[in-house]
Design a protein that fits this description.
The chain has two domains: 52 residues, no CATH class; 68 residues, no CATH class. Strands 1-2 form a two-stranded antiparallel ribbon. The protein has 122 residues and is mainly alpha-helical. 39% of the residues lie in helices and 5% in strands. It is extended.
């Protein structure tokens, strides 16, 4: 297992992934659909955003909870539907479900599609 302490940014992670994953799997994870136009536009839009952290500010009680589209979430991490996650891990779709439930992010689309009457597992 590579030393994660040497991974400092997304390009570092991409270089490692390219080295350790089979080529088609890396291309699937790293790429975008068809001509990758939307991916390029998203990357361009993110380059226009300047993050200015407010360091050294007094915060009495730090909190991560927020509201997303009117739904309270305990951690602002959202899980989008993603096809073929089983290529990355055999239980990919089901493994992300407990995290989604714990964080109350409302994402259960893949699980509902596979098990419309409820979870067959523990």
């Amino acid at each position: 297992m590579p030393d994660a302490s040497r991974l400092h940014n997304v390009p570092d992670i991409r270089r490692l992934a390219r080295r350790v994953l089979p080529g088609p799997l890396f291309d699937y994870i790293d790429g975008g659909a068809e001509d990758e136009f939307t991916m390029a536009e998203n990357e361009r839009a993110f380059r226009e955003i300047a993050f200015r952290p407010h360091m050294g500010m007094k915060v009495d009680k730090p909190r991560l909870d927020t509201t997303v589209l009117g739904t309270p979430v305990s951690l602002p991490v959202l899980l989008a539907p993603c096809g073929l996650v089983e290529l990355i891990h055999p239980d990919g779709a089901l493994r992300r479900r407990p995290c989604g439930q714990k964080c109350r992010d409302g994402d259960r689309s893949e699980h509902r599609r596979r098990h419309p009457t409820g979870c067959p597992g523990p």
